[in-house]
Structure formats: structure tokens, C-alpha cells
Amino acid sequence: MERSVKNVLVVSFGFLLLFTAYGGLQSLQSSLYSEEGLGVTALSTLYAGMLLSSMFLPSLLIKKFGCKWTIVLSMCCYVAFSLGNFYASWYTLIPTSILLGLGAAPLWSAQCTYLTIMGNTQAEKAGKVGRDVVNQYFGIFFLIFQSSGVWGNLISSLVFGQKPTQGAAPEEQLLSCGASDCLMATASTNSTQRPSQTLIYTLLGIYTGSGVLAVLLIAVFLEPIKDAQQQSKGGKKLPFWSTLLSTFRLLQDKRLRLLLLLPMYSGFEQAFLAGDYTRSYATCALGIQFVGYVMICFSAINSLCSVLYGRISQYTGRAALYALGAVTQLSCIIALLLWRPHPHQLAVFFVFPGLWGVSDAVWQTQNNVLYGVLFEKNKEAAFANYRLWESLGFVIAFGYSSFLCVNVKLYILLGVLSLAMLAYGAVEYLEARKPARPAAAEQAMPAERGDTDTAM
Questions:
Q1: CA-based, 20 to 30 A from 173: which of 129, 182, 395, 444?
Q2: Dihedrals φ, ψ of 152, to 5°?
Q3: How far apart are CA 118 and CA 122, in angstroms?
Q4: Comparing C-alpha atoms, which of 104, 115, 95 is closest to residue 270?
Q5: Does residue 104 come out as left (phi exceeding 0), alpha (psi in the -120 to 50 range) or beta?
Q6: By three-state DSSP, how is residue 293 classified?
Q7: DSSP state letters, 108-144
Q8: What is the helix (H) or strand (E) element at residue 264, kind and residue range?
Q9: Local structure of residue 274 (DSSP, 8 states)
């Protein structure tokens, strides 16, 4: 097995273990800790911390510790959040949410930077176009990573299903489910009762162990990697403030300003599925024990589509995939506005997450590749910007989650999606107007720019 592929697999399985824990916990926050909005407040705080972290930490940590140890350090923040859930309160969940948020942006920026460098390095050796290899590596990563939602949610459903506490939802409650949910009903019902504390502790123990294994896997088996572009500067260190503000300086690029809505929309749509669909559709009509199974459908489809898009993008082009994602999610939003969920329509509860996975896979794979290709010389700052604006989308979405009706949230999704696609189209138009480079020159580009190198 090639060293580059081995490292891609190590990163992928490390994230699989980590997000098996975090993904499962995120899906349950709004349902487990609904009192006084603790669950959605914790998620909003988490992404607020990620937003602040995106502004300053990724470039600093990656340059200081390298991609590998930045990933290890950031993963420890996720483990702390799992530990905080053992005694869920405002004094434990909020601080550990902030800590996770601070680690999230460096984690994802280091991962994206690592795969981009590794892909360009392999492309240079094999005489291939850099973006094609990078696209394939991101496809492999997201195939494995997105399956974490399957395992994390399967674990939660199996654990909570040992001792069911849910009964059939009364008809009067069903009237306030779905798009009609305005969060006005506060009375406890059979469908929203918490599982026993013993089952919650069992689940949290499994999740914490999974996170610890992720840290050990990356620390022991991942090879360090460095960007030759930084090495080629003769060892000169950039001033502290220059590194600190590199994220904001990149906003001078008109293309980046136009692309801000893409990651922001990604945050909006993920927050809606994790916070609103799980609570207002699945938990409200079916019960909390179905949340895991519903999210498994999303994660499985997302995972399969991620590797599919990575393979076919070189033939279809990214614009066709973005069109597919936009049309699919637009259809889902309109259907969710019209649908009135009922337990007798069990299959429909799984159709929506499946279609959501088809479109979300576009945002997750193509957005990362797009940022890596367009801002090749400023990868850390570009990916930090990506996480910053995605985090802002999460913060806003979870922030208004407690006081807006679900139908209003769906209209917001509709508006942001439309604007994001218009802005993306403008970027493609600007790129199309640039003079085309010969294919041979494009293949040689990584070597000429000195963008990649592996550390022995």
C-alpha cells in the first residue's frame, strides 16, 4: 500500500472513531437536554467557540505543531465534551462545549491541509493533475468519515432500545410536530421521556472510549507532513500578527467573499437536521429511540455519495454536482414544509434524511476541494475561513432554534440556499474567464509552486 494512501486511511479511521462519539452525542443533545433549551444552547455555544477559534487558532497551531499534532490536540477537546455529558448541566456542558469548539476549527483545518498536501505530493510523483488526486483522497476520507454517523447512531439506538420508555404519540401532539412545531408544548409525553440514567452512562462510556482510541490511532500511526511552500521560504518565520490575521487577509480575495455563503449554508442545513429534524419530526412523532435509526439513513447515504462524487467529479465537473445538491435539498425543504409527520408514515421519516445525505455529501466534498483548489497557496487560511463561516451558520441556526417555528427555519434555509448558489455561480463565471492553462503545465504546477513535501 502506498504511504500516502496509508496516511489517508489513518486520518479517515481516526475521524471515524472520534465522530462516532461526537456525531451520536450531537444528534441527541436537543432531545436529551431539552429542559430550558440546554441541549441547543450547548450546541450553539460549541459552534460559537469554533467560530472564534477559526479566526485565530488554525494557522498558528498548524505552523507551531504541524498537522499531525494539531489533530491529536484537537481530538482531546472532543473527548472532554464526552466526559462533560456524564453530568449534564449548565456548569459542565457549556465549558466543555467551548473547549470542543476551540479545538474543532484547528482539527478540520489540519485535516484538510494534510489531505491537500498529501494529494498534491502523490500527484507530482504520479504525473497526475493535483486536484484530481486531492478529490479522490477527500472522497476516500468522507466515505469512511461519514459512516461514523451510522455507527454512532446505531450504538445510541441499540443502547436506548434495551429498555424502551416510549409509547405511541397522542394525536394532539402530532398536530404540533413537523413544520407546525413552534416549541410551545412543554408538557412531558411518552414519546419524549428520557432514557434511564444507567443507559445514558453506558452510552457515554462507549463514546468516550471511541474518542480515546481515535487520539491513540493518530498519535501512533499518522506520519507527520510539512508544506514545502513554507520550507522554501528559507526557514523565515512570519511575524505573529501576520500569521494570526492570515484568515482575515484572505478575505481580500473577491472569490472567497463570494464563497462565504456556501460554508454558512452548510452550517444551517446540518444544524437543521441535527437539531430540528431529530426533535420536531423524529422524536416528536416516533420517540427518541428512532433518532439514531433515522440519522443512520442520512449518514449511510452521505458516506456512499461522498466516495461516488469523488470519483465522478473529474467527468461531470463540480458545477453539475452543486446543481444536484441544490435541487435535491430545495425539494426536501419544500416537502418538509408541506408534510405532516405521523407514525403510520414510518418510511417517510427515513426518506428525508437519505435525500439530505445526497445533497450534504456535495457540500462536504466539493466545498473542501473547491477551497483547496482555488486557494492553493493559502490552504490553512482558506480552510480556517471555511470553518469560520460554517461555524457562524451553526451558531445562528442553533441560536434561533429555541424561539422560531420550524416552518420559519425552513424558509430561512430556502433563502440562504438560493443566495449561496447564485454566489457560487458568480465564482464559476470568474474562473471561466481566466485564460486556460495547458494540461502539462497544470500537472507540473504543484512541483513548480513547491506546495508539497513529506517530512521524513
A1: 395
A2: -60, -45
A3: 6
A4: 104
A5: alpha
A6: helix
A7: HHHHHHHHHHHHHHHHHHHT--HHHHHHHHHHHHHHH
A8: helix 261-271
A9: I
Angle at 100 between CA 399 and CA 360, to 5 degrees: 60
Q: How many residues does the chain have?
A: 456
What residue ranges of the chain have pLDDT lower than 50?
Answer: 184-192, 228-235, 438-456
Beta-bridge partner residues of 453: 226
71: which residues sit within 8 A by CB, 6+ positions away? 11, 14, 107, 110, 111, 114, 218, 222
User: How deeply is 87 buried, as exposed, middle or buried, from its count of CB atoms within 10 A (0-12, 13-18, 19+)?
Assistant: exposed
Report the interhelical angle of 130-146 vs 90-126 (nearest 10°): 140
pTM over 0.90: no
Grid cell, residue 216, equals 491513540
State the DSSP string of 138-156: HHHHHHHHHTHHHHHHHHH
pLDDT of res. 310: 76
Pairwise CA distance, residues 455 & 223, whole Å? 8
User: CB pairs under 8 A, 24+ apart, for 63-69?
Assistant: 63/230, 63/238, 63/243, 63/380, 66/224, 66/225, 66/226, 66/455, 67/110, 67/111, 67/113, 67/114, 67/117, 67/224, 67/225, 68/110, 68/114, 68/218, 68/222, 68/223, 68/224, 68/225, 69/224
Q: Can you say whether residue 450 is alpha, beta or left, with left for phi > 0 and alpha for psi between -120 and 50 degrees?
A: left
Are 261 and 423 spatial neighbours (Cβ–Cβ below 8 Å)?
A: yes
Say how far apart CA 209 and CA 18 lie, in whole Å: 9
Whole-angstrom Cα Rg for the chain: 22
Q: Rounded to 5, what percent of the chain is helix, strand, coil?
A: 80, 0, 15
Contacts of 243 (CB under 8 A, 6+ apart): 59, 60, 63
Question: What's the pLDDT tens digit per position in 124-159?
Answer: 887 777 777 887 888 888 778 878 878 888 898 888
Q: What is the identity of the amino acid at 305?
A: C
Residue 63 CB coordination number (10 Å): 16
**First-residue to last-residue Cα distance in the chain:** 18
* 220 burial via Cβ count (<10 Å: 0-12, 13-18, 19+): exposed
Instruction: Report yes or no: 373 and 317 within 8 Å, Cβ to Cβ.
Output: no
Residue 195, all three cell numbers = 432514557
Torsional sign, CA 50, 55, 56, 59: positive
What H or E segment, with its residue span, contains residue 454? strand 453-454
Contact 284, 418 (CB under 8 A): no
